[in-house]
Amino acid sequence: MTTALFPGSFDPITNGHLDIIKRASAMFDKVVVVVGINNQKRGWLSIEDRVTLIKTAVELLPNVSVMATDGLIVDLASQLNATVLIRGVRNAMDFDAEKSLATFNRQLNSNVETVLLPTLPEFESLSSTRVRELYKFNIPLAPYVPQSVAKFLKQKRDFNEE
């Protein structure tokens, strides 16, 4: 049984992330989406909201679970007996960064392989950063994030405007 981790900040999860999760869930027995906690950065959404939004987005994928960690991904992989790290790549710049990270992670834990999944063309320009910018300018988010995320962010905006 192969367990794969898909780490990221997911601030918020996008349709590009969800596509990678769906594809990984078809490839591996178990996929754990891991929201990384970076104590040096203040996230846009809380860790709890990110985890909840991802859980809602993947609820129809029975072999996918979601958790958060503030530790090293390779250490978590050892704890969960995961042997694969999933990373999405949108372009050559992503590939170079992810290749370097994969090499570093392999040095830290030689039992973990990184699998790079190329993003589908329709998601190549999509990122959480761009979603946050669209939100700032009140652009509808439905084409870019799962429906539950778009609904949550609309409610967040409506609440903040009251």
Automatic annotation (TrEMBL):
Listed Gene3D superfamilies: HUPs
- What positions does the domain Cytidyltransferase-like occupy? 5-133
Name the residues annotated as site: Transition state stabilizer.
17
Q: What class of enzyme is it?
A: transferase
Pfam families linked to this entry = CTP_transf_like
Reported EC number(s) for this entry are 2.7.7.3
Keyword check for Membrane: no
Question: What are the subcellular locations of this protein?
Answer: Cytoplasm
Write out the catalysed reaction. Answer: (R)-4'-phosphopantetheine + ATP + H(+) = 3'-dephospho-CoA + diphosphate
The residues that the entry says bind ATP are 9-10, 17, 88-90, 98, 123-129
Which residues hold substrate?
A: 9, 41, 73, 87
What InterPro entries would the database entry show?
Cyt_trans-like, PPAT, Rossmann-like_a/b/a_fold
User: What is its cofactor?
Assistant: Mg(2+)
This protein's major location comes to cytoplasm
Question: Which is one GO molecular function term here?
Answer: pantetheine-phosphate adenylyltransferase activity
- Biochemical pathway: Cofactor biosynthesis; coenzyme A biosynthesis; CoA from (R)-pantothenate: step 4/5
Q: Which UniProt keywords apply?
A: ATP-binding, Coenzyme A biosynthesis, Cytoplasm, Magnesium, Nucleotide-binding, Nucleotidyltransferase, Transferase
Q: How does it assemble?
A: Homohexamer.
Family affiliation = Belongs to the bacterial CoaD family.
Physiological role: Reversibly transfers an adenylyl group from ATP to 4'-phosphopantetheine, yielding dephospho-CoA (dPCoA) and pyrophosphate.
Name it: Phosphopantetheine adenylyltransferase
Q: Which organism is it from?
A: Nicoliella lavandulae
